């Protein structure tokens, strides 16, 4: 923690495991350990999915074999957010909160190729483009990554909230 000297305590998220599939239930415990009693509005845990899409316009060669890349473009979007309240407004000290979060069966987003169903002369253009991109032959298909996390938060009035986040895998 950057401000370790000013720490109010710690939040520890302990899931049963770190690898899940759509439709699974995440079981775990969130432990709250505060150095002194603290008045707060709520304590919660959330499941969050953030998708990063990165695309590059391409590369070209100047003066011999020196490759120059055109800058990449990156976007981040929250694709899923579910918050589970664990406790309400009260004075918090030290406690453990068991939790269960159901992962929806349809949670995994699919990257849709806009040319997937386009046929020219009996050839599926989307399939051809995907194959070429897979071979790395210059097609600049976006790289899509989804990061999943469990995030616990103690909402404290008038000051910075306490937060803790851990990465999990869903796939």
Sum up the overall morphology in one term: elongated
Report the portion of residues in β strands.
over 45%
Determine the fraction of residues in helical runs and give it as a percent range: under 10%
How many strands, which pairing sense, and closed or not: the largest β-sheet?
Answer: 5 strands, mixed
Radius of gyration: 23 Å
Kindly, what is the distance between the CA atoms of the first and last residues, rounded to a whole number of angstroms? Answer: 30 Å
Biggest β-sheet: strands ordered side by side in the sheet:
2-12-11-4-7
Number of helices: 1
Provide an overview of this structure.
By secondary structure, the protein is mainly β. It has one helix and twelve strands. It has one helix at residues 125-135; strands spanning 9-15, 19-20, 25-40, 42-56, 59-62, 66-69, 72-87, 90-102, 119-120, 123-124, 143-155, 162-170. A five-stranded mixed beta sheet has the order 2-12-11-4-7, with no helix packed on it. A three-stranded antiparallel beta sheet has the order 1-3-8, with no helix packed on it. It has a two-stranded antiparallel sheet with strand order 5-6. It is elongated, with a radius of gyration of 23 Å. Mean pLDDT is 81; it is low at 133-138.
């Amino acid at each position: 923690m950057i401000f370790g000297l000013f720490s109010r305590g710690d939040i520890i998220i302990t899931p049963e495991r770190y690898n899940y599939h759509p439709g699974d239930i995440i079981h775990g415990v969130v432990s709250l350990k505060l150095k002194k009693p603290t008045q707060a509005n709520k304590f919660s845990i959330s499941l969050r999915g953030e998708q990063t899409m990165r695309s590059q316009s391409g590369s070209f060669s100047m003066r011999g074999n020196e490759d120059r890349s055109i800058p990449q473009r990156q976007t981040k979007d929250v694709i899923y957010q579910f918050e589970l309240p664990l406790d309400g407004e009260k004075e918090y000290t030290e406690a453990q909160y068991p939790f269960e979060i159901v992962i929806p069966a349809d949670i995994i987003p699919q990257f849709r190729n806009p040319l997937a169903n386009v046929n020219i002369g009996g050839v599926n253009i989307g399939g051809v483009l995907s194959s070429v991109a897979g071979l790395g032959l210059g097609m600049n298909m976006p790289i899509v990554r989804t990061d999943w996390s469990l995030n616990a938060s103690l909402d404290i009035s008038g000051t910075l909230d306490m937060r803790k986040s851990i990465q999990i895998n869903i796939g």
